[in-house]
Design brief:
The protein is α/β, with parallel strands linked by helices. It has helices at residues 21-37, 57-70, 88-98, 142-145, 154-173, 293-297, 320-327, 353-365, 371-385, and strands spanning 2-6, 42-45, 78-81, 103-106, 117-122, 125-132, 177-184, 186-187, 211-212, 223-227, 233-234, 242-244, 261-266, 274-279, 286-292, 306-312, 331-337. The chain has nine helices and 17 strands. The relative contact order is 0.12.
């Protein structure tokens, strides 16, 4: 059986002032074209289909139309679990309407025999797909709550869930069906990126409280399709073929330069999968650029890129933003970089809001702002900037 694994589309996500819906639409079509050319039997999506729990209407249309396109006209089933950006309730409400297309949305964590494990017929035989949507830290899962297998620590709770699914899948699959898990959580040791810039993953769900050890990856399954981490990579420490497919586009400057992909899996019942990547090329690239204005302004290779500019100056440059926007049509942000201690009465008007808040916090408290507080600030700023007037 041949399976295509994609993840973290984040349909509807903006980049600063730029809508990216057309880039997203093109990237989804590229994924569907790969599914067609590879003649895959099943498509799995491991969460964060949308960027917001209640997506704008256009994002909803693009995301759902993309799932329909992935079915290849009904030739193959498509399975999607809800990620931390998705609404479990919205998934469950849409699921009955999409089932007729062969699209299986799983928003809630369910008992294995009652929707938590799907038995799907494909052109290459049956597949048993265990579905584990994102588990929020305080969430109680009813079918585990009354047993001695449910524990308080987040990592242990996820591990117990994956064990329950794996036991059920292995028993049901026998030697006649392919077995896999589709899940959305962070495994300790996964590479989240090293650019020092904010990334597209929701940082409030990326800390130690949400980190799960490698023991949560069941070794008895043919393949584990993971979502939540945007950098494409094998799941660290897994004893079975397991991959983070990664995000569809470079979603923020912390992802700049990452080669996006889908994963193609070839697997037979009772055997580990063979895994390979197919690169994605859709979408405008992102780049961070530093230097003097003379150096940056003279470059001819930046006009078609989304840009984050750090310009070396002697002090505040109130007109820098307008100057950079005139030269670079896809400028996302620009900041002057200078020795602030050497400049009296510096203006902060040119800085990003997060930097202004961080400077305010440090001035008032005498210590740097905590990372989780800055992550919360980014969440609030993002919500406000995208609110309907």
């Amino acid at each position: 059986m041949r399976i295509l694994h994609t993840s973290d589309w984040h349909v509807g996500k903006r980049l600063g002032r730029f809508e990216r819906i057309e880039e997203t639409r093109d990237a989804i079509e590229e994924v569907a074209a790969i599914a067609d050319s590879e003649a895959v039997d099943l498509v799995v999506h491991s969460g964060d289909l949308f960027d917001r729990p209640v997506p704008p209407m256009e994002a909803l249309q693009v995301g759902l139309a993309g799932l329909v396109r992935l079915t290849g006209g009904g030739a193959r089933p498509v399975v999607v679990v809800a990620g931390n950006h998705d609404s479990a309730d919205l998934f469950e409400a849409l699921a009955p309407f999409l089932a007729g297309w062969g699209i299986h949305l799983v928003g809630a964590i369910k008992p294995p025999a009652d929707g938590g494990v799907l038995r799907l017929e494909t052109g290459a035989g049956d597949a048993l797909v265990a579905c584990l949507p994102f588990l929020r830290e305080g969430r109680v899962v009813d079918f585990m709550a009354d047993t001695d297998r449910w524990y308080g620590q987040y990592a242990e709770r996820v591990r117990r869930l994956t064990e329950a699914y794996a036991e059920y899948v292995v028993a049901e699959a026998g030697t006649s069906a392919v077995s896999l898990l589709v899940a959305h959580f962070m495994v300790t040791g996964a590479r989240v990126g090293g650019h020092g810039a904010p990334r597209g993953e929701r940082e409030l769900h990326m800390g130690e409280a949400y980190a799960v050890g490698e023991g949560a990856i069941p070794p008895s399954l043919g393949y584990v399709a993971m979502g939540h981490i945007h950098a494409p990579q094998p799941v660290p420490g897994a004893n079975v073929p397991a991959e983070y497919a990664g995000s569809l586009l470079e979603l923020d400057f912390g992802e700049a330069g990452e080669e996006k992909r889908v994963v193609v899996i070839d697997v037979e019942p009772g055997t580990p999968a063979g895994v390979r990547s197919r690169p994605l090329t859709s979408g405008r690239r992102l780049q961070q650029v530093s230097g003097s204005w003379e150096e940056i302004g003279s470059r001819t290779d930046l006009a078609d890129l989304y840009l984050d500019l750090k310009v070396d100056t002697d002090g505040p440059e109130p007109g820098l933003d307008a100057l950079a926007r005139e030269l670079f049509p896809h400028l996302v942000k620009v900041a002057a970089v200078y020795d602030r201690e050497a400049v009296d009465d510096a203006s902060y008007s040119h800085l990003p809001w997060e930097d202004i808040y961080a400077a305010y916090y440090e001035r008032e408290r005498g210590e740097p702002a905590p990372d989780d507080l800055l992550a919360a600030f980014r969440e609030v700023e993002d919500e406000v900037s995208h609110a309907t007037p």
